[in-house]
Design goal:
Strand content: 15-25%
Radius of gyration: 17 Å
Structural class: alpha/beta
Number of strands: 9
Number of helices: 8
Bound molecules: 5-O-phosphono-beta-D-ribofuranosylamine
Helix content: 25-40%
Strand order of the largest sheet: 3-2-1-4-5-8-9
Distance between the termini: 12 Å
Length: 235
């Protein structure tokens, strides 16, 4: 088996975002320039009506919707929130196969995620270990650095005074920024970097990695067999 998605039906992505949407743009550009054959964006969802990502979607004639979500809150462990129920209906209506969280600032509950096993991925602007868990990460040069999760991971890396951070694409699990890794790349922290300058360089890497991750995952066997990190990356 080649492992390539030979099916006639394209993989239908939903991209969930809350802001700028430069990673959505990277996916749009890759699809339009035929770098992601067999992949289409079925729906863009934002919890923020002013998210520039919505404008990007509309400019490319993609279905895009503002889904009011209210304040960020800790999700229930046993049942989906009303917002998640509404989101689920939308995802089903648009026949979404795969969900990309691209700067989506709301935590999704375990019951929501269970509906889409290994079908929700997230971009995190820091380095996570292979299985996503643990509190340290060993960089290519053998240095052990802390794992930065949650908000302002770029700022956290700068404040820690380390030399390397990076970008990680990982499966989403109920624990925030702690799922198995699909793609990852280090980014050097330069002297004089600000949060903005460093985040810009991390984003340049992210834009490449998100396309790479979706290309890998478009092999249907990678999705259905729940391959661990090492297996997925060796293709
Ligand atoms: C990215 O840096 C991503 O890692 C983080 O949110 C940012 C979203 O950027 N989760 P954009 O909205 O795609 O430009």
């Amino acid at each position: 088996m080649s492992g390539i998605n030979m099916s006639e039906t394209p993989l239908r992505l939903a991209v969930l975002l809350s802001g700028n949407g430069s990673n959505l743009q990277a996916l749009i550009d890759a699809i339009e320039s035929k770098q992601l054959p067999g992949v289409e964006i079925a729906l863009v969802v934002s919890n923020n009506p002013n998210a520039y990502g919505l404008q990007r979607a509309l400019k490319h004639a993609l279905p895009a919707i503002y889904l009011p979500w209210g304040q960020a809150n800790v999700p229930q462990k046993t049942e989906m929130s009303e917002n998640e129920t509404r989101l689920t209906s939308l995802l089903r209506l648009f026949q979404v196969d795969f969900i990309v969280l691209a700067g989506w600032m709301r935590i999704l509950s375990a019951p929501f995620l269970e509906q889409f096993p290994r079908r929700v991925i997230n971009l995190h602007p820091a380095l996570l270990p292979n299985d996503g868990t643990g509190s340290t990460y060993t960089t290519k040069d053998g240095t052990e650095i802390p794992v930065f999760r949650g908000l302002r991971a770029v700022r956290q890396a700068l404040d820690a005074g380390i030399k390397v951070t990076g970008s990680t694409i990982h499966y989403v699990t109920p624990e925030v920024d702690a799922g198995p890794v699909i793609c990852r790349e280090e980014v050097a922290i330069e002297q004089g970097d600000t949060e903005e300058s460093l985040h810009e360089r991390v984003k340049v890497v992210e834009h490449r990695l998100i396309v790479e991750a979706v290309r890998k995952l478009n092999r249907r066997d990678a999705i259905t067999e729940h391959l661990p990190y090492d297996k997925i990356t060796e293709h």
